Amino acid sequence: MKALITSLSLVVGLIAGPAFAADEAKKDPSPAQQAQQERMRNCNKEAGEKSLGGDERKQFMKDCLAGKTASQKPEAAPPATPQEKMKVCNKDASEKELKGDERKKFMSECLKR
Predict the structure, then answer these.
(1) pLDDT the model gives residue 101
(2) pTM of the model
(3) In terms of CB atoms within 10 Å, which end of the chain has fewer, N or C?
């Protein structure tokens, strides 16, 4: 009986283990993915405000995500390297004359973008 319980526990552990590990292994989206997600949110919001539906909405979303709509503002390219990102964030913090904890908080948020 102990052998049966032990082997069942082992089987359950082998089956369930990878499922739990997969959840922990999820990574944060890359800056490019974050930019795409933000673009998608903005286009979706704009389509909702215009009460678009069906094929009209599909075409609008396609054009909006491609940056072809009149209201779509061209986005500045995100800094390519962490060093460039640090320079941009430092410059912004200096322009805002941030000091101490305010600067630390700003830098943290800026570097996450």
Answers:
(1) 94
(2) 0.40
(3) N
